[in-house]
Design goal:
By secondary structure, the chain is α/β, with parallel strands linked by helices. The chain is 26% helix and 27% strand. A hairpin with a 2-residue loop joins strand 24 and strand 25. The structure holds FE2/S2 (inorganic) cluster (FES). FE2/S2 (inorganic) cluster binds next to loops.
Length: 460
């Protein structure tokens, strides 16, 4: 277990132990670094949950910080001096006796209370209440914690609302503000987005620079710009009335922008196999974030599951960080190309780590210990403490779709084969940029131009 940058540590208390972290390092990464892979338990079946996405998407990492429950530990930086503990699990998240629920899962399948008490709805609701109590959700441990989450409401009157503060969102915000529009940019946590955790090179003007450098430069420019209000929060949805609620710490913003720029990036797609929720199964951007942003390497042996070139790039990063990559499994049927020599699988055949096969299961009683991989009809069990799932990401275009539904008056009109960039340009008041629009690489110049067009339209 190593930390590449141990300088200037700050200390915090985790379940009675004093842990140290670099300032700005996420709480989850510091807990992982201390040798604790289980961050919480699932609500009902009490299955162990660990660091998975790294970007506040999967819900697998809530902890209680200074009495405030439900804090997303993968995106919350260590301040120093806080008291952190895990939630759920009796007597602890590591050894939860209520895990027995999972062993009896076939007797209490999802929604069992509605089937069992179909004719007695009161009993169904009672069962739900009991399950909620056992899960420990929805209750504040202290009155102070309850007071801490009270919110105030405010109306935001910016011309342009940019949802997402990654490379494309920052560039679009700068473009809009540069053309004279007032801009509000909403992003959870540190600006820069996933670009800062990726290895890819992005273009910026005539220069070519590493993604992290460009993301940092754009983030600094946004923070220094008087015409851009940066809100640390997230956009909830697009309402039919044109209202877009934004939830931030202690604040609900009621936004009514003339133009919405969706720059919400993409989601990593999880692999479908038994045990895919085990601590140690981590999505590609989560791995990249730990290595590049948090600079923590809590693994020794890795299997990488991929359907393209992304897997090999991550495998190389892991090896540079000191992790032994024992296999890169190129999923059969997903990554192999029918044209010999043209597809990612063929290009990787010269790499002895590559297996053309299928991940069949993640094994381990509590955390990942091994991965079952099927190759040519035979299943091999490969010992590993990390299974990195590096499949092609899906555009996070939900907000744009909601805007489309409202514009079209129906979900049918835009269901199915929605192509983000085309439809966004045909819907007044909406732009989609970056990977949310299906762009396959970062292009801040293009996003800047989209933002500038959105901003200058407000002058007419
Ligand atoms: S929400 Fe934190 S790891 Fe996914």
């Amino acid at each position: 277990m190593t930390s590449a940058h141990p300088d200037g540590p700050v200390a915090f208390t985790f379940e009675g132990r004093t842990l140290s972290a670099r300032p700005g390092q996420s709480i989850a990464s510091a807990i992982l670094q201390s040798g604790t892979p289980v961050l919480t338990r699932s609500f009902k079946y009490r299955r162990p949950r660990g660091y998975t996405c790294g970007y506040d998407i999967c819900g697998n990492c809530p902890v209680t910080v200074d009495g405030l429950p439900g804090v997303t530990s993968c995106t919350t930086p260590v301040r120093g001096g806080e008291v952190v503990r895990r939630e759920r699990g009796w007597p602890s998240a590591d050894r939860d006796l209520l895990r027995a629920t999972d062993l009896m899962a076939r007797f209490v399948p999802a929604g069992f209370q509605f089937r069992l008490f179909r004719s007695r709805p009161r009993l169904a609701h009672l069962a739900e209440k009991v399950m909620g109590r056992v899960a420990g959700a929805g209750r504040f441990p202290t009155p102070q914690a309850a007071r801490a989450v009270r919110t105030r409401t405010e109306v935001d009157v910016a011309d342009v609302l940019v949802a997402g503060g990654g490379v494309s969102g920052c560039a679009a915000a700068l473009g809009a503000a540069g053309s004279g529009a007032s801009v509000t940019l909403v992003h959870p946590g540190r600006l820069g987005g996933r670009g800062s955790a990726r290895d890819s090179i992005v273009t910026y003007g005539r220069e070519t620079a590493p993604a992290a450098e460009v993301a940092g430069r754009l983030a600094s420019a946004v923070l220094a710009h008087d015409g851009i209000r940066v809100v640390d929060g997230f956009v909830m949805s697009y309402f039919e009335t044109g209202v877009i609620p934004v939830v931030a710490d202690g604040l609900v913003l009621e936004c009514r922008p003339k133009h919405l720029v969706v720059a919400t990036g993409s989601y990593d797609v999880p692999g479908l196999f038994p045990g895919n929720d085990k601590p140690g199964v981590v999505l590609a951007d989560g791995v990249g974030k730990l290595l590049r942003v948090d600079r923590v390497v809590p693994w020794r042996r890795a299997v990488v599951m991929t359907d393209g070139d992304r897997g090999r790039a991550l495998a190389d990063q892991l090896e540079q960080a000191g992790v032994e990559v024992v296999a890169i499994v190129v999923q059969q049927g997903a990554g192999a190309s029918p044209e010999p020599g043209a597809g990612p699988a063929d290009r990787q055949l010269d790499d002895e780590r590559v297996l053309l096969g299928t991940v069949r299961a993640a094994r381990g009683a509590r955390v990942l210990r091994a991965v079952d991989v099927e190759v040519d009809g035979r299943v091999r069990t490969i010992r590993a403490d990390l299974l990195c799932v590096a499949l092609a990401p899906r555009p996070a275009n939900d907000l744009a779709l909601q805007r489309q539904y409202v514009a079209a008056g129906t979900t049918q009109a835009v269901g199915g084969g929605w192509a983000g960039a085309d439809l966004s340009s045909s819907t007044p008041g909406l732009s989609v940029v970056g990977s949310a629009a299906g762009w396959t690489s970062d292009d801040p110049d293009r996003a800047h131009a989209v933002g500038a067009a959105a901003g200058s339209a407000q002058e007419k």
